[in-house]
Amino acid sequence: MTDTPRRTIVAHDLYSAHLGEERTVKIYLPPGASVNHPLPVLYCHDGNEFFTHGRIATLAHERITDGRLPPFAIVGVAVNHPQRTNDYSMAGERHVRYMRFIAQECLPFVERIHPELGRSRELRCMAGVSLGAVASMSALLAYPELFDRAVLLSGAFLSQVRERISRLPELPGRRLYMRVGLDEACAKTPAGTHDFLGANRLARDLFAARGAEVDYAERAGSHIWGFWQSELPAALAWFTGQ
After folding, report:
1. Contact partners, residue 47, CB within 8 Å, separation at least 6
2. Which of 31, 40, 135, 220 could staple 88 via S-S, CB 3.0–4.6 A?
3. In Å, what is the CA distance from 64 to each residue of 117, 156, 233?
4. How many domains does the chain have?
5. 11 pLDDT above the threshold of 70
6. Alpha-carbon distance 140 to 143, whole Å?
7. 167: buried, middle or exposed (CB in 10 Å: 19+, 13-18, 0-12)?
8. Residues 6 or more apart from 157 whose CB is under 8 A from it?
9. Based on the number of CB atoms within 10 Å of its own CB, is 199 exposed (0-12), middle (13-18) or buried (19 or more)?
10. 1 has pLDDT over 50
11. Rounded distance, CA 239 to CA 232, Å?
């Protein structure tokens, strides 16, 4: 019986000129990562929460080491909690600057220190929960040359966001993985109580009508990390094509 290879998680503090602040970028690398073999990479908003509450690195490492999933990397981008809405919301005061931080600072930094990661949009994916899902979708729209797919869990696709989506051009080639909880029709959040279930149904239809490839499902669950963690194994399988 062989020992399970230890996982590698490294945190870096990256200064953003666009945001005027430092962000922690946490990177999970699978066993045997090599510059000679390009790896898919999943970029996560609310990065620390994905690693702690979502246990994404643990779930990924278990499945990679036992052969259920091929090797891939995870990049968790820490949130600035007081600025979360301003950064993630498409109407947020800092949203454009946050998108530039992701595309022009974070991604080049990661791929410079780890040349085996990403390198093409086919090997990159964005992931987010709630308002982080909106930020993930916004990144696909703003930088189609960098990203063409996203994992969107319980996306905060409320009326203002849907109105923006309704004005979008065609979205062929975009691949979206959407999951929402059946108990999210009246979900309480720090920003108020919202119908995320209905909002995701409407957003799904808007994306599909514009030519996006949408993998959509509703599961038993609420607007909490316990639900999102339970959905991550299937999301990772979708991301890796399994």
Report:
1. 24, 25, 26, 75, 76, 77, 78, 79
2. 135
3. 16, 31, 11
4. 1
5. yes
6. 5
7. exposed
8. 133, 134, 165, 196, 199, 200, 202, 203
9. buried
10. no
11. 10
Characterize 107-136 residue by residue with b for buried, 16 or more Cβ atoms within 10 angstroms of its Cβ, and e for exposed: bebbbeebebbbeebeebbbbbbbbbbbbb
Report pLDDT digits (tens) over 23-73: 999 999 998 777 768 899 999 999 999 999 999 999 999 999 999 999 999
pLDDT, tens digit, 9 for 90 and up, residues 116-162: 887 899 999 999 999 999 999 999 999 999 999 999 999 999 999 99
Q: 13 lies in a domain?
A: yes
Residue 2 domain-assigned? no
Give the confidence band of 174 by pLDDT, cuts at 50, 70, 90: very high
Domain of residue 175, residue span: 8-239
Q: Is residue 171 part of a domain?
A: yes
Q: What is residue 3's predicted lDDT score, i.e. its pLDDT?
A: 64
Look-up: residue for tokens 């919301």? 89
Q: Identify whether 1 is part of a domain.
A: no
CATH assignment at residue 135: 3.40.50.1820
- Residue 128 to residues 42, 51, 176, 179: CA-CA distances in angstroms? 10, 12, 12, 11
pLDDT, one tens digit per residue, over 197-216 is 999 999 999 999 999 999 99
The rounded distance, in Å, linking the Cα atoms of 172 and 10 is 36
